[in-house]
Structure formats: structure tokens, C-alpha cells
Here is the input.
Amino acid sequence: MMIHCRVVTPTGIYKEFDTPILNLDTEDGERGILPNHMPIVTMLKIGMLDSIENDVRTYYAVAGGLFYFRDNQAEIITPAIEQREEIDAARAERAKMRAEKRLSSDNPNIDQKRAEVALKRALNRLHVSEYK
Amino acid sequence: MAQSKQALRSRIRSVNSTRKITKAMEMIANAKLFKQRNRMEANRLYAQRLQDTVDEIVARNPNAESVFITQRDNPHRMTIIFCSDLGLCGSYNQNVLKFARKQLNKTDPTIVIGTSLYRTFKEEGFNLIQEGPYSSDAMNEFILEDFVELGVQKYLNDEIGNVQLLYTKFVNTMTFEPAIETILPAPVEENPSDKETFHVETLFEPDADTILNQLIPQMAANVAYADWMESTTSEQGSRRMAMKTATDNADELSANLLLEFNKARQASITQEITEIVGGSSAV
Here is the structure.
């Protein structure tokens, strides 16, 4: 049994693949979805997603979004996703430093919340890219 | 009275050089239109899936009472208006302006994206809640998200009962219409079409309201992004058409002037011959 998974982003369909398991970071904890799971709709956290595609474990960094599952058809609707191998660690590192600098400055014009989200995304990318 | 050859020649030269510019602008607008349109199409599925999911959650949870789907009595509406940065795009900006005058209440909070109409809106007394003009070309989904976030905050504080976008709809490559789209409270399709699948029980984790409260602001930001792209696509389309008309006019003008010039040239030759013939017969 396989789950057919489709990843939809604002720039189009990122990827479609079949996997026997999907591990997600949802708002209320990590969750593993196996085939024939009951239909579920849940919100994803900024975190990691992993699957087994063609017998290879594949890791993704997901920037939040929505997870939708029914009849073994899964759908990940997310603003941004990268596979571990695609992550530009140097760029994520720079983004992290920029976000940290912004958070530590007391300039009232800086949107703290946005900087926080940016930091979370950068940390997540770094975490996934270093994940073994 | 025919114009002098000299004057005609310089006018032809001037018309042709203007034509070169408008032709180049037409081609640039065409390329940009194509690019922008592809981006717009790519986003469509994402937007559609978000909307479908919201519809489904609401349909399956009739007692969901997220603040983002309940209609409010508050008559104030916040509007984000999209216009262009640059001119020379036909009636694109004028249409937006006319539509805004007709549809909007000047005292309601408004944000204008695009520098060309910022001053006009300000002078007309619209309640702009931004500090300075925002460039439309420098826009991206993150900045738009901030504007939508501002709307969400005002909505939650009950300062406004409605957040909407005034954008230009891209009907086809020749037709563009200004339109208003409401993003908050989220428009929900009451009777989604695929009813038969609704018998299957679905798990909503943690619960429908929590999902809706997170999902709807996300969706609103995406709709704003989509509408901005649609507006810029319309802008490029409008510019392309305006420049095409200008180029065609230049062609026509240049052809007429050339005819005029040749007539003048012919007339002067005829005159010279007459003078020579007349002169020799006198001798």
C-alpha cells in the first residue's frame, strides 16, 4: 500500500510521489500517516517532513501550511518547501543571522513577528539540512 | 499649402524615432505580460486548494464559529488598492481611480500599492493609512502578507468589518476590468459540489475553528498576492495595447508624411523644369 502525495505551492505543483509513510510536524506534535488512515485535515508547523520514495528516505523542510488526506491521496499545501539536498545552508545561515540581528535591535519599525517567522524558517532549514 | 520639404523631413524623422521607442516598449510589455501570466497561472491551483479546503471545513462543521467567517455589522471596510508605478499604460490607472471613487468610502482606511495614483488618492481625501507611496514593482508576497496582517489586526479589534482588495481583473489579453474582492470575512461557498464524499468522516486536528483561524489569514494573504499578480498582468497587457496603438498611429502618420514629402518633392521638380523650359524659350 502506498500513499500518493502531492505538494502544492504558490509557484505550482512542487512534486508528486508515492510513499508508504509520511511523517509530519503538525501544530499538536509529530504525526505519522500510514496508508488507509482516516481522512484528516491538519495544520503543519514550520518543520520537517519525511517520506520514503523509491525505498529512499527523503527529508523536506516545510514552511508551515496545510495537510489534507483522504482515500490514500495526501496533499501538502504549503507556501514553501525544499528537499534536504536542495537547501542552501549558507543562505539559511545568512538568513538566520539577519533575523537574529533584527530581533535583537530595538528599532520599532522592525516587524518582530516577521523576523521571528524568518528566524524559525532559517533554523528549520539548517536543522533539516544537517539532519542525519 | 504644402509644407516645406525640410520641415517634412524632420517630422518624419521625429515620428520614426518615437515609433522605435513605442515599439520597444510594446515588446517589453509583451515579454513581461507573458512572464507575469505564467506566474499567475502557477498560483491558481494553490489558491483553489486553499479555498476548497476552507469551504469543506465550513460545510462539514456547520457550528464552526471562527471570527473570520462570521459577517459583522461594522460598516467600515479596509481596502488595498493596486495600481501601477509607471504611466503609459492606457486607461489602466484611470479605470482604477474611477472605480475607487464610485465604490469606496473616503473615510475608510485605504492602502494604495503603486506609486502613480498615491498622490491623487491623497489629494482627493482618501484616508490612506500608509506613510508614503509603495512601489508596485517592488512588491512581493511577504510585504503583502504584512498589509493583510494589518487588516487582520484591525478586523480582530473590530475597527473594520471587512477587508477587501481593489484590483484589475485580467479577463483576456484585450479586456481588463477593475473589481473588488472581499478577503475577510472569508467568502465561503455554501454548497460545495462534491456532496457525496461528505458522508466520509473526517478528522480535523486540533479542531475546525483552530484550523480556520490559522488558515484564513494565510489564504487572505495568498488572495492578495494573486490579485496583485493579476493587476500587474493587466497593467502589462494594458501597456502593450496602448503601445501597439501608438506604434500603429506612428506608422500611419509616417506613411502620410512620406506621401506629403514626395508630393512636395515632385512639385518642386516640376516647377524647376517649368522654369528652365520657360527660361530657354525666352532666350
User: Anything to note?
Assistant: Residues 3-84 of chain A form a domain with the ATP Synthase; domain 1 fold (CATH 2.60.15.10).
